[in-house]
Known about the structure:
The structure holds two protein chains of two kinds.
Chain A (H helix, E strand, L loop, with lengths): L2 H22 L5 H19 L1 H11 L6 H50 L1
Chain B lengths: L2 E7 L3 H14 L4 E6 L6 H7 L3 E4 L6 H14 L4 E4 L11 H10 L4 E5 L11 H18 L11 E4 H9 L6 H11 L4 E5 L14 H20 L6
Parallel strand pairs in B: 1-2, 1-4, 2-3, 5-7
Antiparallel strand pairs in B: 4-6, 5-6
Helix pairs in contact in B: 1-2, 3-6, 5-7, 5-8, 7-8
Amino acid sequence: MDLILVTATIVNILIFVSVIELIRRNRLKEKYSLLWLFSSLVMLWFSVSRKTLHYVSGLIGIQYPPSLIFLLAFFFLIIINIHFSTVISRLSDRSKTLSQEIAILREMLERDKEAKE
Amino acid sequence: MKTLLIIPAYNEEQSIGGVIEDIREHCPETDILVIDDGSADATGKTAQSLGVTVITLPFNLGIGAAVQAGYHYAERNGYDIAVQFDGDGQHRADQVKNLLKPIEKGDADICVGSRFLSRGAYEAEVARLIAIRILSRSISFLVGQKITDPTSGFRAVNRTVIRFFSHFYPDDYPEPESLVLLHKAGLRLSEVPVLMEKRLIGTSSITLLRGLYYMVKVLLAIMIDMIKEVPGR
Lengths: 117, 233
């Protein structure tokens, strides 16, 4: 087994374990960890199974099979980032609506208080 | 008809008082709502001391979200018409009745006050004028009718648009973008000539490059709006 594949295996196991640990300590929501877990498992599979790595590399014309793992990592990072951008957009939309709501409610509350006094 | 004047204001303590007095003088019947968009100065306090309704956003959300808060308020409180009016003293309260006419008659769903339809000389930087000209050509083409002043934030809308805006209002370049979105939703746009003041307080210095940059950004935003899903009315 190449040293580079051993390294990749170790790194992927570390990623997988850290994500699980973060979930266990409630510092990461399962919802946002699925993509991490999925991508680290796929990359782990490619790092461990020489057969798969060489087969898929051959299929898409990669001369040096371990670089397939880099390619995969690159794809996964792009997907995860786009996913996060959609999450951020949704959150900023919600925080906008909440701020507007709070401002309107605060005005109503103050008017109510004045009416009572 | 129950009419609400929405004034978005961000750090306008120097002009907001004059704006409110101007409106009280010329539109005594309308309710006034100031949206204090997280101002650092006394904008909100000044407006409150004049007895108008003030909504204070917890932090600066930007013009789009501030105006939308006003539409939320208008929808919730059952207003038939909402008028957008700048807090910087650029808009003139004696021109509001021109905006209201097409809405009250039911001829349009939104009526925009245009500086360029009126005879009065409107002076501005060349860069700004060029940017507005190219934008207005593009938007006119997209909505299939002549729009001369797409960046004007002086506008009146009816109940249908109040509801539409309170659910869906663009954040980035709300004035031109909202016209495209309303057209896509099948609503009727119109423009009337209005007179505007030159900015009294604060200057907007637009260089040629910045004018063009602004224009390109707005055009991109509008192209994205064209392919966006727009909620039905």
